[in-house]
Structure formats: structure tokens, C-alpha cells
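Anyone else keep sequences and C-alpha cells together like this?

Example one:
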Amino acid sequence: MRRVQWIPAVLFALAPAVASGQTATPAKWEVEGHGGFAASTAATGGDAVTLPAGTAFTTSTGTQSKYVSSWFFGDGAALLNGVNAIVAPSAKIAPLDAVIGNAAASRGSGGAFGVRVTRRLGARYSAEFTVDYTSTPLTFTEDALDGIEVSRSTFAGAFSGLFQTVPGTNQSTATTTMVEGARSELLVTGVFGVDLVTRGKLTPFVVVGGGVAHSGGDAPAATLLGNYALAINVPTLPAALTINETDRVTVRLATQGNAPVVVFGGGVRYAASPRWGIRGDVRFLAGGGAHDVLIDAAPSVVKVSPGLVLTTPSNLSPSVVFSSGNGFRGSLSGPAISGTRTFTASGFSVRTNIAAGVYLRF
């Protein structure tokens, strides 16, 4: 009878020890959802590329001119302003050269959210994999936007001044169309973390690692469309002789796609229980962010019969030639340009992500 009475007592004594041993195993995995604020700088270094040169030719009146692809930049703007320096000194176009020959990209700031998976590696160390979506839109800098607007606003005045010495009626207009760029970035990173203390519920930590910043979608673009029309009445002809030419230029930033980044930062974690907690941190991602500047130019001329060939000023060099007749080329008849790189960017951006979230441990 004594032996039977001892067996339950021994089992009852062992049961708490077994249960305690089962719950002592710490959880090694964490899954976190977080949100916060993101900001980013843009690379400002780089080098301007030589703009396409116009081809020189001799006009029918013996003066010199050039075949150019646009009046908005390069040799086209220099030719137009050189002529206007003689016929209309106060009416000059503001070239785009300063815009397309410098860093023109900027990154905005906004909200961010993401998910993180963490593997605890002992009491102090951890490895993390994070995917973040940040609302940091890619745009033109304020200086670039100002330069584009000044160039647009001076186009009409430059041609009104040029045509003031030509008999007839004329009209000049210029508009700008903007296309927004990518509104966000996707950041995929992996880091190694170190806890600075190993006891207590409040744990400061630091992280270091790397990853990839993906910037997809369209690149920002600004299209300038300038047009001028001239009509000259000739008594012996039933209709006026006309000139109608359109200058179309697009300035755009090159998309970057995937760019490597280095990650470093730190934060604090509060363990509300062995199974869940709250974490806040600040992370810096350095890399990428260098966006080149590209231009497209597509001039067009309306051809009519009978056509008009006009050289102004007819007796001075340089001069500008307008032609609406088939077989005759005016100055705005240079080759179309597509994707010509005018600025090669260098350097990197620094992204700052401030986030707070809740994690579950299992």
C-alpha cells in the first residue's frame, strides 16, 4: 500500500518541472508590420555632355546659317539670339542649356509602410529581411522647372521680335506639358542586428546591411511646343505666302530601375510579452539616385505650294532661313533627336525611413 501511495506523489512533483522546461524555449522568429515617414535626397554631381551641333550652310543671299533641330537649346538658341541681337535686342529666347546640362532630379517625401521578418540568433544577434514601399516621388528640381518656364515664356517674344522687320502678319505661341514621374520606391533590404542590452523589456539595437532600391514607372518629362506662323500678302497672287513651323522638345530624366543601397540605423524594441512587442527605428539607405538628363527634339514644317523662302536679315550674317516650299530647307530642318543624353549624373541619394510597428514572435 505504501508503494502505491508514493507513485502519484512522484508524478505530481515532476509535472511542474516538465511544463517549466517546455515553456523555457525562447521564440526565434518575428514577423512585423510597420508604417511611418520616408524622405530622400537626390544626387547632384555629374557632367554636362556636348550638345548636338548644327550644320552650317550658305543661304541664297550669301549669308551664313545653320540647320538646327530646335530653337530651345544649343546652336538653335544661339543662332536665333545672334540674329535678334541685331534686329530686336530685347527679344531673346532663354535657352534650356542650363536646365539640360545640370542635375535636374529631385526626390520628395511622404508616407511609408512595410513588412519585416526577423530570425533571432541567440540572445543578442538577429538577421532581418524587410520590404518597404515609400512615397518619395521623382520630380524635376525647382531650378529646372523655373528654367523650363522661362524658356517657354520667351519663345513667342523672340519670334515676334524677329518678324517685326518682315511685312505681313505673324503669330507665335509656346506651351509646356508635364508628365509626372514614378511616385514611389520599393526597398528590399537585409540587415544584421545587434541588441545593445540583453535584459529588460526595453532593448536598444543597431543594424547594418544592404539591399536594392527599385524605382519603376515613367520618368518625369516636360514637353515644350513652340509654333510660329507668318503670312505675307503678294498683290499678284490669289493667296498669301505662308510659313508655319513647329518646334517640339522634350526634357526627361532617365529611369534608374534597380540600384544597390547600403543600410544602417538603429532603434528600440519593447517586449510587451514573450509573444509580441512594439518596435521603432530609423534607417538610412545610401546609394542610387543618380538620374541622367535626356532630350528629344522633333521639328516639323508645313510645306505648301507655292512655297515661301525667307532669309532674315537678308544681308547680315548670321541669318535665319524659313522655307515652306518643297525642295528648300529652312534653318529648322536639322535631324530629329531621340534620347540624346545631355547630362551624366553621378553620386548617390540618402533615403531616411522612420517607422514604428508591432511584431509577433513565434
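And example two:
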Amino acid sequence: MIQRCLPRFVQAKTLSDGRIGYYWVVTGHYRKLGCSIPNEKLGCDYEEACGKEGNEGRAAGLNALFDEWRKARAGEPIERKLIIFGTVDWLFREYKQSNAYLAKVAQRSRPDYERTILLVTDLVTKKGDRIGDRKVRAITPLSADRIYQLILEGKAIASPAAAVDGDASPKRDHRFGPRGRRPRQAEKAVKLCARAWDVVRRLDPDPFDQKVPNPWRGVALSRRTKRVKSAATREDVYIFAETAIAAGYPEVGAAAVICFEWLQRPENVLAGYIRWTDYRGREAPNAIRITHHKTGAVVLHPLEDADSTQFYADAEAVLARVPRRGVPIIMHGGPGHGDISKTEPAKLYSASGMAKLVQRLRKLAKLGPTFTLDACRHGGMTELEEAELTDGQGRALSAHTSKAYEGYAKRTMMRALAATRKRHAHRLATAGTNVAGTEFQNGPWKSFQNELREQNGTDQ
């Protein structure tokens, strides 16, 4: 097992499913001295919890809070970089510690949230002050509009903290312009700020101006063309799976198949939510159980019909090639993988490790750069629409509680062709009705019209 550097107060524990969980725990000595910073579960991703070298991640933020508490207790001056109560920095810190963030924001989305938060807090205004150091009371609707425009136009200036020694002018941070218009980043910043404002204001209203509503609600967002995510085809998914099996990574091919056929989210596949006990288990021997951690929904996908028709023969053939290294289906390491002389235990894939493998294997399979596990799931959702399932049937398979699944289904030529066929059939049916009607028009009605023409002396 690889020994990794653990920051202060961070403990590593082996969980029941074989994963390593990281926890930030203040020792009893400091608890007796009055430290009230709560202990926190940092998750199972080492880089998110501790950073690549053990000096970043969520643990670094918590240790900074501890240092602030210790200095305040000793009567030492607190540095400007440390978070001050009632500031925008404080707002986001409280938001990230709330249940609204911990329970609703997925682990794979949190790094993106962090980048967006830094995009706002590290922004420097014309007055030279940093947005993160401002009091939340100072952020008015007009201020929110201006911050949005700065991010939108890519004109935000990096924090002076980014300046190099001896350089009077601060260097531009990679998060800031000039990079042209950034409508998506600006829109994400507004929505995140609005959400954080609502959550923290409800929990601790004192720092906020009660006479001023949420300044981020009502910001006029610029229209933008939203990027459509790629959707992998069935053919590409199984070409990739065959390539992965041939390269010695059958579990990677199985991950792509699971995302496509049974519509499980990639982060759930990697987190071990698809287990061998879910596949033709004792309770459902003719089905596979898919758990969607985001919604809490569990879907049983039938694998065969009463007449022994196999619905997912190709997918089951891929699963048959995956070694059983543990309870979760998608694992690596352990016996029968790579160098058999290694004694490293089997473990789950990290998101970054899987992404690198997918990138390497798709090149071997000669697939495009848009092929990802997420694209596999989008491809499966698109196939539901191409099969002309009703909304209810589609949601029954995808576990969506609303019509949100429509956003996953791409507007492909096959869907357009199916719609055109239905429209054409409707037109033919309507034309048939008109033909039946013309029998009357060519009969009594035409005779009546001829009589009128004779009476009027016209041949119109």
C-alpha cells in the first residue's frame, strides 16, 4: 500500500468496502483548550482531501482555520489572508460547511465550485480592494451587476497576492482575462453566489443587511448558446470495451458499458455503487440493481424475458471478463491484474486515474476525444429517445424524477427520422380522410354546382 503524506489532524481509515477514508480530527488537547472547529469527513479522494503532495485540499483550509483560532487565543495579530467574520470569504466558508453544500454538491463537482468561488473572491476592483475581503453588507445589487460584467468580459484583475517579488504590477492569474467573453463562467458565478447567499443568510442573518434582498437574484444574464455534451454510440461503446479487454483493463470497458446500458452516473460507478451482489443477486436473479446516489433512486433493470430472451447479452459478455477483485465491480490492482508479483490490494479507481485510462484506451480504439464515461451515459439516454419510449418509460429506466432526462437525449438524425415517419403517416391518414370526403364532393355537391352555373349562365 502506498504511504501518503497526511497533513496535520488528518487520519486515514480503511472503510468496510476497502476504500480509504480521510478525516480531519482535532485532538482532545485542543478541544479542552476551547477549539470549536468541528471535525470533518474529507472523503475518499486523496487529492481533494489533502492535495497532490499533502499540503492543499480541504485539509489545508481547515488547518488555516485552526491556525487562526490558535493565534487569536494567544493574542497574536491575524494576517489579512485569514478569513474575517462577515466577509465574502466567510460567506463561502460557511456555505461549504453547510448541509446544503455537503449533501447536495457531488464530490466531482466540488473542484469546479472551488474555482468559481476563487473567481469571485480573488477579483480586485478599481478601488484596489479584493471582493473576498469586503463585508457581505457591501455587496449591493449594483455591485453584483458589476462583478458579473467583469467576469463576463474577461476583464477581472488578479489579486495582488499573485505578484512576483520585485514586480510592482500583479501578474494575471490563469483564472482571469483577457480571454474574451466568458458567459458560462459569469453565469455560474452568479448562480453560485445567489445560492450561497440564501443558505448562509438563513443560518446566520446578522452580518447581512435585512433591508436589501439577495443582490445576486435578478442579475440580467447574457444570452449564450449552451454547449451540447457529446453522446457515444452503441458501436463506439463496445469497440472501446473490446479494446480495453484486449489491453488488460476489462473493468474500464465494463464501466463504459454500465454507463451506457444501465445509465448509472460515472461517479457512482467509480465510487463502488455497482457491486457484484447487484448483478443477478439472490433477491433479483434475472436483473441488475443500479443505485443512483445523487437522487437516492434504485432501479432494477431486467436482464431477460420470460421466454429467455436476453436483453443485454453483449453487456453481460463484457462483465464476464471482469475479475472479481472485491465487492464493487469496478476495481483495479489485486491478484490477476498487471504484475502478479505485486501484493498491493485491490482498490477503487480515482476520477483522474480513470480519465487518464479512458483517454489512453480511446486512442488505441481510434475513437474521438469526445468519448468519455459521461458521453457513454448520454449515449444511453439518447437511445431511450431513439427507441421512442414515453416520458414515463424513459424516467423509469433513468431514475429521473422529472423530465430532466430530456436534456440528456441528443437530437439525432434517428430521432428526427422517427418523428418524420410519424408525421408522414399522419399526413397519409389525413389524406385518406380527404379522399373519402371527395366522393361527396364529386357526387351531389358537384351536380349542385353545375346546376348553379347553368342557371347563372356561367361556366365558372
